[in-house]
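Input chain follows. Return structure tokens only.
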Amino acid sequence: MNIILEFMYPLLCYDTRFKNQPLISSLPSPAPKQLFMKELRMGNLGLVITLLATFLFSWSNAYGFDPSEKSEGFSGRISAGVGYMMSTDQLKTTDENETIDSLDDDADWYDKFMPLALLNLRYTFAESGRQIYFGTPPEPSGPPGLSLGFVQPFRDGSDLDISIFTNPFSEVWRDPYLTNTDRKETRKYNYGARIEYDGILGTQFKLLYSFTRVDVNVDDIGDRFDDLERDGYIHNAEVEYKFRLGQTMSLAPNFALSVGDIDGDANAYIAYKFGLGVRKFSKTNQFLLKIGIGWDDYDDTHPIFDKTRNDTNYSAFGMFTRSDLFGTDYLFGTLMAGYQYRDSNIEFLEAQTFLSGVMIGIMF
């Protein structure tokens, strides 16, 4: 599935209006200096942000809005850390995955460390509680990129969040099916709009819809096969309901539907996903767990593998966050770990990915 959720994901969802709530952020032990300098290249930035969005988006429902807890004026969060990824995904654009030997053999494992950094700025109006925000909040269609939006709270406890976003950092292979030669990266531009209505009419329901335009800069595989063109549009809709289990725990099942209206028929798809999130928190600690299963059904025969692609996606992710880090009320730290498995009827597209990380951040 276009995994509308997974891998790294909610730091930015934490709302700085709530300075007494536990917070999230994350990723593992430091890598050698030379590795960090290598990963800072723009060529790897897309992967870093994509992976971070995965973890972040999974927890985007963890911090509900409560008008009584807002504070006026500017607020923000800045966080940074390091992550470690190990994967067999042959579609990811990394130096370690640049050359493949065959389209039929089992994929080799590769790993990498990556630096991470996130930013979220908000301004809250005193009387209305309305907010304007800018930063790198996660989007269901992929990497967080840059987002500008506003939140309108209502008297029944619900709030409406409307934003526009763009992602100039994402990358794909120009032709992911080349063998025994170095594959070349190209930019994949995503931009669109998102609307979310949370706490509908004072209930625990949340609805979300996003519309994304996808534009691959140099689409060599699309030039070779019209059915593999990758430009197009993505529509994503999600519904969630939160069950309160006492004062410190909640359970949130959700369902998501994604429609990829892509120019290449073999890349056009309908995706379905069921997820379940669990949140347990205290004054200074918070634990989050999310599991999901989804299916991607593609429209037409893949011209290289001569079959219509169908994927089943499994994911599990956990996060532990400590606020008031080192006894300092504006510091927070997060540990996280996740696993994702894509089971495809096309062997080349099967993939496993493990990810872990640690982040430290400040809020103001």
